[in-house]
Amino acid sequence: MAKRGSETRPIVKLRSSAGTGTTYVTRKNRRNDPDRMVLRKYDPRVRRHVDFKEER
């Protein structure tokens, strides 16, 4: 049986706000989070936690 939730849970890239070019890939629920996501995650290039913002 095929997955059918791709339009409600798209794959998004999260890019580091530190300017290092580090990215994370995740899925989001478009009904709960219609705006762009901002998550605080670890950036190994600067060795600290920074904001990662969704890019489209």
Automatic annotation (TrEMBL):
Keywords carried by this UniProt record: Ribonucleoprotein, Ribosomal protein
InterPro entries reported in the protein's UniProt record: Ribosomal_bL33 (IPR001705), Ribosomal_bL33_CS (IPR018264), Ribosomal_bL33_sf (IPR038584), Ribosomal_zn-bd (IPR011332)
One GO-annotated biological process of the protein: translation
SUPFAM superfamilies, sorted: Zn-binding ribosomal proteins
Cross-referenced Gene3D superfamilies: Ribosomal protein L33
Span list, region Disordered: 1-33
Domain of life: Bacteria
A Pfam family recorded for this sequence: Ribosomal_L33
Family according to the record: Belongs to the bacterial ribosomal protein bL33 family.
Protein known as: Large ribosomal subunit protein bL33
Organism name: Nocardioides flavescens
